Structure to design on (432 residues):
């Protein structure tokens, strides 16, 4: 079924406001149109632009990314996170008092393997067929070349290093994820540019990746508008709710009368959720990337290096390395040393890259904000103040991957139909 191209008139379908035109918001707008709703997208910035989280992420459609960041024993690492401001996960001291309640919940969520498994089982319902769903959306939006479905690779230095991640792979296996092991000789054959210190590859065939997340999200937003959505270039600030029914979304440019709304504003969704009667512990996991334009060597398969906790693969604009987690809030200035760490590790992963003449390449840096809830699960459900307001945010490291299914679920809630996936694990009220 394609997206409706026109509406029969002013009363054609319930009028919904989708707040945010990122990956989740754009997918929600498209699916709401498909359901016959009238859609207004509220977004102050250019969809897919450099200010957007989707613009600079790693591009992985990792249907196997079901393991939450916090695992049993993570609490032992907190002193190291505080002591090393340039480690893979770092906490900015000034932000610690505000982030502490979130951090405590984050650690508790992964306290036992059973808790981790429950989270993984829930996430798998959002991610299992994500590459296929994104391929469909990309084809509808006229950019099928941006979605590739040829698997993802995890590179390990040794069998012992892989066994150090045994819990995560054990949990993935129970959710139905399958993988192949590439021993050293096969890894060398498949990835000739990869440094010889990597001797084991774990290849996940079902996964995929996006060659240009910013362009992809921009195409989805454009597709929604071409299909009939209206866009208001404004910032949503709250809601007008009367007798439990939504009457309007308030913005810095005035009110937008509507029958329903979806909060899909990523890391900036917290105040809107609170305004809808559903405060949640949302935090920004700040992430960085570096793009080497003009690079001539790199991975054949999008690759995560276990020793550097970064993802490297080709984008339309060059070779990108993305990763790092920094808990520092939305407003702190970037620490570009973290991007330089990614660059140095990228050069160590692909030694021939370091041999390229400096004048032959250009290196660009970027910072974005992953919207993260402490238990590793997004919020997908209706608000406490009004069932007309749907929350759809907080996907952490799987926002792009999970956006296609989330858009379908949010649209079903907006249309008043039964969700195709059980939403109890994602209920906004789980935080009390």
């Amino acid at each position: 079924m394609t997206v409706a191209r026109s509406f029969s008139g002013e009363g054609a379908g319930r009028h919904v406001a989708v707040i945010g035109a990122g990956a989740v918001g754009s997918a929600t707008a498209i699916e709401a149109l498909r359901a016959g709703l009238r859609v207004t997208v509220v977004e102050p910035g250019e969809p897919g632009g450099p200010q957007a989280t989707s613009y600079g992420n790693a591009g992985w459609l990792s249907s196997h990314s079901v393991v939450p960041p916090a695992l049993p024993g993570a609490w032992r690492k907190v002193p190291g996170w505080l002591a090393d401001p340039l480690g893979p996960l770092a906490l900015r001291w000034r932000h610690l008092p505000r982030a502490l309640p979130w951090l405590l919940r984050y650690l508790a969520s992964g306290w036992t393997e059973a808790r981790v498994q429950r989270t993984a089982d829930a996430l798998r319902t959002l991610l299992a067929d994500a590459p296929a769903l994104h391929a469909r959306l990309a084809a509808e939006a006229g950019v099928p070349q941006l979605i590739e479905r040829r698997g993802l690779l995890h590179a390990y230095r040794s069998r012992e290093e892989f066994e150090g991640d045994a819990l995560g792979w054990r949990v993935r296996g129970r959710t139905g994820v399958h993988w192949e092991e590439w021993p050293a000789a096969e890894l060398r054959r498949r990835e000739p540019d990869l440094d010889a210190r990597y001797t084991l590859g774990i290849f996940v065939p079902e996964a995929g990746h996006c060659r240009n997340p910013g362009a992809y999200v921009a195409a989805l937003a454009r597709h929604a508008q071409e299909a009939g959505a209206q866009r208001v270039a404004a910032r949503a600030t709250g809601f007008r709710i009367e007798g439990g029914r939504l009457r309007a979304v308030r913005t810095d440019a005035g009110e937008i009368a509507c029958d329903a709304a979806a909060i899909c504003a990523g890391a900036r969704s917290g105040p809107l959720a609170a305004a809808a009667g559903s405060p949640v512990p949302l935090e920004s996991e700040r992430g960085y990337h570096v793009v080497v334009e003009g690079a001539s060597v790199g991975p054949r398969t999008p690759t995560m290096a276990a020793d550097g906790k970064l993802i490297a693969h080709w984008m339309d604009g060059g070779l990108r390395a993305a990763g790092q987690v920094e808990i520092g809030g939305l407003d702190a200035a970037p620490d570009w040393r973290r991007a330089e760490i990614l660059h140095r590790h990228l050069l160590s992963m692909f030694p021939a890259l370091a041999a390229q003449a400096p004048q032959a390449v250009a290196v660009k840096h970027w910072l974005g904000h992953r919207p993260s809830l402490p238990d590793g699960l997004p919020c997908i459900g209706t608000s406490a103040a009004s069932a007309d307001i749907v929350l759809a945010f907080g996907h952490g490291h799987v926002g792009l991957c999970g956006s296609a299914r989330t858009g379908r679920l949010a649209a079903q809630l907006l249309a008043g139909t039964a969700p195709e996936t059980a939403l109890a694990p994602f209920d906004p009220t789980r935080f009390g």
